[in-house]
UniProtKB/TrEMBL annotation:
Name of protein: Cupin domain-containing protein
Cited InterPro entries: Cupin_2, OryJ/VirC-like, RmlC-like_jellyroll, RmlC_Cupin_sf
Superkingdom field: Bacteria
Residues annotated as domain Cupin type-2: 110-175
Source organism (scientific name): Microbispora cellulosiformans
Length: 183
């Protein structure tokens, strides 16, 4: 049975004791630019660093990628390649790009325009954990690695793409930490 994403958040009550302040299912965000893919934006902290305590800020889930010192927690369900259809009509591209910008601002900025390989590069340190299914991580060198449940990936800002070559959806959990790229 597939995992149904749920967010449980703790905080502080009026008396200063720890309480559950949120326990709710998280609906997926979809976009035609990523057919069949479901993105669950769970939580994030502000750029520059996280704080905790009674006055900690609420979640920041957008823009999609955190700036230096910020974080993002998300789940992504990748459909099997066999479930995907061909690329959209070029006539629809402006509308598709606008939809992604509205729902997931910043996400398309990491892809090269017109490139359909899925290869992208982010200025983040990402921790990824395969929770369901099977996914392939491809690097621009041609290196590939098959991920199965329990596989953990540390993605250090290198060009990469994700591919589901199986017949079932794959679910990945990601913690992205905004980073600076030394010059």
């Amino acid at each position: 049975m597939p995992i149904d994403p749920r967010l449980v958040v703790t905080g502080y009550g009026a008396d200063g004791e720890a309480v559950v302040v949120r326990d709710t299912p998280v609906p997926p965000i979809t976009a035609r630019a990523f057919p069949g893919q479901e993105m669950y934006l769970l939580w994030g902290s502000p750029d520059g660093g996280a704080t905790v305590g009674p006055k900690a800020p609420g979640p920041i889930t957008l823009p999609f990628f955190a700036g230096a010192g910020g974080t993002r927690l998300l789940l992504v369900r990748f459909p099997p390649a066999s479930a995907l259809t061909g690329p959209p009509s070029p006539d629809d591209q402006a509308e598709i790009d606008a939809e992604v910008q509205e729902r997931l601002p910043g996400l398309m900025d990491v892809f090269e325009p017109g490139d359909t390989s899925g290869m992208h590069t982010t200025d983040t340190l990402d921790y990824g954990i395969c929770l369901e299914g099977e996914l392939w991580l491809e690097l621009d060198s041609g290196d590939e690695v098959r991920l199965t449940p329990g596989a953990c990936v540390v993605q250090q800002g290198t060009p990469h793409a994700w591919h589901n070559r199986s017949e079932t959806p794959a679910l990945m959990a990601f913690v992205g930490i905004g980073a600076e790229r030394p010059t």
